[in-house]
Write a structure and sequence with these properties.
The structure is a single chain. By secondary structure, the chain is α/β, with parallel strands linked by helices. Strands 2-1-3-4-5-6 form a 6-stranded parallel sheet, sandwiched between helices. Strand 4, helix 4 and strand 5 form a beta-alpha-beta unit. Helix 7 packs across helix 9 and helix 7 packs across helix 10. This is Response regulator transcription factor.
């Protein structure tokens, strides 16, 4: 069972998410919260696998709550999926830097939300497709976007895999593009996470573009 906490200040929205999640056979809703402070207390008490986190809430916003939860030893292993109606580039960047493993718009279809929970619970990261495109466009507009030369200890093959991750490719798609075995790609991704100190693929994407290892628009 995937244990999920639902955080949203709107009662009807929160109730809708809870009803949807409880309809899925392999998801257990461990609790609900109406703001960031309640979310922190709930997560410390229940240590959920996934937190569906709203952003704009009273008392404490979702991003501040996410940073506190992800840094708390009592919540070790908890992952955050940010859900919002706001399609804002700065908000996405801040969410990823706060440690969120997913960022979805509330317009996401129910089946996609359930799939996102399964993907993030399995250790992957997930961004709404429109958000991914806009992030890449934002990095493309940076005046110093160029191949990175930092001594990060990566092999050339690991850099190839990192560039493919930054383009949003799955492990299977990376294996096909680079003519590698699926297991080999999984190993490379695991090594990248360890070497770069990233918690998941979302942070790998951030690193790739911010360091210049990946350049928007490059094949």
């Amino acid at each position: 069972m995937i244990r999920v906490a639902v955080v949203d200040d709107q009662d009807l929205v929160r109730a809708g998410f809870v009803m949807l999640l409880r309809s899925a056979g392999e998801i257990e809703v461990v609790g609900e919260a109406r703001d960031g402070l309640e979310a922190i207390a709930l997560c410390r008490r229940t240590a959920p696998d996934i937190v569906l986190m709203d952003v704009r809430m009273p008392h404490l916003d979702g991003l501040s709550a996410s940073r506190t939860i992800l840094a708390d030893p009592a919540c070790q292993g908890t992952k955050v999926v940010v859900l919002t109606t706001f399609d804002d580039d700065d908000l996405v960047l801040e969410a990823l830097r706060s440690g969120a493993s997913g960022f979805l718009l509330k317009e996401t279809r129910p089946a996609q939300l359930l799939e996102a929970i399964e993907v993030v619970a399995a250790g992957e990261a997930l961004l709404h497709p429109r958000i991914t495109r806009r992030l890449i466009e934002r990095f493309a507009a940076l005046p110093d976007a160029r191949p990175g030369t930092a001594d990060d200890g990566l092999t050339e093959r690991e850099r190839d895999v990192l560039r493919a991750v930054a383009q949003g490719l799955s492990n299977q798609e990376i294996a096909a593009r680079l003519h590698l075995g699926y297991g080999t790609v999984k190993t490379h991704v695991s090594h990248l996470l360890t070497k770069l100190g990233c918690r998941d693929r979302a942070q790998l994407v951030m690193y790739a573009y911010e360091s210049g290892v990946a350049v928007p628009g490059a094949s």
